[in-house]
Specification:
The protein is of the alpha+beta class. It has one domain. Helix content is about 30%, strand content about 15%. Strands 3, 4, 5, 6, 7, 8, 9 and 10 form an 8-stranded mixed β-sheet that branches. A two-stranded antiparallel sheet has the order 1-2. Helix 3 crosses helix 5. The longest helix is centred in the first third of the chain and has 23 residues. It starts with a helix and ends with a helix.
Length: about 350
Amino acid sequence: MHRAWLQGTLGCCILALSAMVAAQQGTIAQSILEPNRLPRLDSSVLDVGDPAARVSGAPGSFAITERTCHNPLSDTQLRRRIVDIAVQEWAWFGLQVDDLRGLQPPAEGSTAPRRFRPLPLNPEEVQQVAATVSGYWSAIPNSDWILARQNDVWQQPGGLATRWRDPWSAAFISWVMCESGIGETTQFQRAIAHHSYIDQAIRASEGQAGGALFHAFEPGTAELAPGDMICSGLRPVYRSLAQRKAQLGEGARTHCDIVVGVDTETGWILTIGGNVRASVRMKLFPAAVGDGGHLAALPTNRYIFAHLQLTAPGIDADAWRQSPSLQGLSCNQEDMPALLQELAC
């Protein structure tokens, strides 16, 4: 990282100014990569396939060529691998962190508001990440039509300045699970929408989905650990797992992130998710121990309505710091952004 930390900090300031101007003009492209992005690790350090290698072609003509998942691992290795893969992708996109502390939840009966106005994307950056995101889609069975639809979008006048027609956050989660060795859909329902595997976890918690590796809990009623997931609802806005249970099997706009760190004493939860402002980003959630005796995310601009707990042995609460992608990070670097220094050090 080194000098790139300072460049990244300045880049964030420039992006914020650009967003203000774009709110008036609507013409400035949004950055989805930060200058301090890190390369993916050699397979001898972390044996994870490059998602871009799962497709052939170029934007406008991509085709999926590989769908296989990593060989299954033992239960004791599963959480560690999920976290390490998520951290590597976060580092590759530039170690971007969204601080959600102090945000207000949506009003009763409303949909979750957007924090940022979507801007046109930087075509050069889209060119760099298009194969990676296409590779994420490859982890979902029968997803060729998604890529075909996006190829059509890229062939339109807007070209690479346009966003993905279909949100790819569930594709990112599905790819992480596939690369973690969860290949059977009876274990995890890899799908184009989060609600598919949320519902699977709900059924598993009620003894109706044998073999599922995630079980659903009301936030704060079960121990939260790295490798788990937390989920929010956009349309509709769910405030509890019970509300989703009442609509089991129905379509819904939901979003889940992978938990990579928890700190009960400080009161925060760290997650990594995909398609967060067109990137893979970390989120810092404020959290507190609730009536159920366990840590839960407090309401921010969205409510966390579900905790999907992985049925595997736990790992250290600060698992993300131990990921091999971050071993070159030094807390003595003067140009490290204050928020990341707060979290990592």
